[in-house]
User: Which sequence fits this backbone?
């Protein structure tokens, strides 16, 4: 067993090896049973910065066992006590925010300012759910026939398997862990292979905050499919909460169906950003920069298609190009950086291919568009104009700093084009006409709409998508916790 700790005196210093000692199972830090490790690479430099264990089926079984052993105690822990522990997790994350932001920048590559934003957002899920943990109520009513009372009790669903992507290594985990713990569940988290260090650093924080052993277990593996299948086949596991691509989500839904396991799915997006002629140009440009460039475009909510009405089109393209071309591209950990590298070389190649296809079909490159030489997985901020509707990037997630601008004429036309996608996660609308904004918001098929702003994410609001973008909601009043609870109905005669 290897003990792990975070020294508050060393807040700003990140010793990466100290976050890569072991799988976190039952409150202990253990090596994988086969002794294998996974290397973690800094996308800014391509240097290997750490190695984490590569868990086996045996390790996954140990994690389920640990979560099962901890379940009765955690479920019976008073909501007030659970709330206080969650609050402490929030406080420790805020205290260690600079260290956590550095860690995220190192393993994910995102600009430090984005990483700082992520830590604040991620910590907020603990504060919010600490507040919600003591407000879980039931229902009491009289049956219409008058023969009995209807009592509804909300109970923790059971052991949860949580799977998260690399683009928000802290927030995607806390968005699941905090409500699951508030509800009284125990969990096994499988973070993305590219970004495991943040998940382990946070596990140490939860332990320090008083989360009992086995309540949160963390496993890293290069065999996510077989390990997940094995965990879902254990009848004690009752919940799968997944954030990632729609393709993997479909596979996991099929796997969960075999065991009739409750699923929450936060999947891919293809967000339209619509700018009407009457929009405030600066508000629209500010919003577009946030919607497109938060995390260098590596966000499920990222604006993927920018529809701009003819009257404002040229001014918008000019303004956007100026802003995108002026962004400082560099290593994530460099404080001047505004656009960090992509997660892998493969991701850069995919973006390059999408841009090439669009330009071959007639799109005009206003800035960027060329993959630079040298170390690091960089792609420059890019604006494309006169983009035809049938390009591949209009159907696929770009997941990078590329803004394709499409021209439109009428409200009816832009709604039809915005909805012409299998996805339905986020959408952005810019107009000074509030009636139009609300009308278009109600017609655009998306789980979340930003009106005259570039950001939707908020722990206090229900996050999630429609169509192929997912099932269920995270965060929000009751929504996030409800995903981790079952309603038990008692028909009571007395
Ligand atoms: P991904 O390839 O689907 O991977 C997500 C997670 O699933 C990773 O931990 C991955 O492990 C794991 N995984 C892969 N195959 C699996 C399998 N067969 N069984 C079980 N787990 C498996 O997605 P990604 O590339 O990491 O993330 C980008 C995607 O996530 C984008 O589509 C983005 O839109 C979406 N996303 C959605 C939201 C949302 O809230 N809706 C938020 C963020 C991101 P490995 O790392 O080992 O492959």
Assistant:
């Amino acid at each position: 067993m290897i003990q792990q700790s975070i020294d508050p005196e060393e807040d700003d210093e990140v010793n990466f090896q100290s976050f890569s000692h072991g799988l976190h199972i039952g409150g202990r830090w253990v090596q994988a049973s086969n002794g294998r490790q996974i290397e973690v690479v800094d996308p800014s430099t391509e240097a290997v910065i750490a190695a984490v264990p590569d868990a086996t089926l045996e390790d996954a079984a140990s994690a389920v066992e640990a979560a099962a052993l901890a379940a009765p105690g955690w479920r019976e822990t008073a909501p007030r006590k659970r709330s206080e522990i969650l609050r402490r997790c929030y406080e420790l994350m805020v205290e260690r925010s600079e260290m956590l932001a550095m860690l995220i920048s190192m393993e994910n590559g995102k600009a430090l300012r984005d990483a700082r934003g992520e830590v604040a957002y991620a910590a907020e899920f603990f504060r919010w759910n600490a507040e919600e943990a003591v407000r879980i109520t039931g229902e009491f009513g009289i049956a219409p026939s008058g023969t009995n009372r209807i009592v509804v009790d909300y109970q923790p669903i059971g052991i949860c398997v949580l799977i998260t992507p690399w683009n928000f290594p802290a927030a995607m985990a806390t968005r699941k862990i905090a409500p699951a713990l508030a509800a009284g569940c125990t969990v096994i988290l499988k973070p993305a292979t590219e970004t495991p260090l943040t998940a382990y650093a946070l596990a140490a924080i939860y332990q320090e905050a008083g989360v009992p052993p086995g309540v949160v277990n963390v496993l890293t593996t290069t065999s996510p499919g077989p390990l997940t299948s094995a965990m879902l086949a254990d009848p004690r596991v009752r919940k799968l909460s997944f954030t990632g691509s729609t393709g993997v989500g479909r596979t996991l839904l099929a796997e969960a169906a075999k065991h009739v396991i409750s699923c929450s799915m936060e999947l891919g997006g293809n967000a339209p950003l619509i700018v009407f002629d009457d929009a405030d140009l600066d508000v629209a440009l500010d919003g577009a920069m946030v919607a497109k460039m938060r995390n260098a475009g590596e966000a499920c909510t990222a604006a993927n298609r920018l529809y701009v009405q003819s009257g404002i089109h040229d001014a918008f393209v000019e303004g956007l190009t100026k802003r995108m071309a002026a962004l400082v591209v560099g290593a994530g950990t460099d404080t001047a950086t505004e656009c960090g590298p992509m997660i892998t070389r493969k991701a850069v190649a995919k973006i390059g291919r999408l841009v090439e296809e669009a330009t071959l079909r007639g799109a005009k490159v206003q800035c960027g568009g060329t993959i630079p030489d040298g170390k690091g997985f960089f792609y420059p901020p890019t604006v494309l104009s006169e983009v035809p509707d049938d390009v591949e990037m209009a159907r696929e997630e770009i997941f990078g700093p590329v803004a394709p601008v499409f021209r439109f004429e009428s409200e009816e036309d832009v709604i039809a084009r915005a909805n012409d996608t299998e996805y339905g996660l986020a959408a952005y609308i810019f107009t000074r006409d509030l009636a139009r904004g609300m009308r278009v918001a109600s017609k655009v098929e998306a789980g979340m709409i930003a009106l005259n702003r570039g950001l939707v994410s908020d722990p206090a609001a229900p996050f999630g998508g429609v169509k192929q973008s997912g099932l269920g909601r995270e965060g929000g009043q009751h929504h996030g916790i409800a995903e981790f609870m079952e309603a038990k109905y008692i028909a009571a005669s007395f």
User: Anything to note?
Assistant: The CA atoms of residues 411 and 436 lie 9 Å apart. Residues 163-168, 172, 190, 192-193, 224-225, 228, 243-245, 248, 251-252, 266-269, 300, 397, 425, 465, 470 surround NAP (CB under 6 Å). The mean pLDDT is 95. The first helix runs from residue 57 to 76.
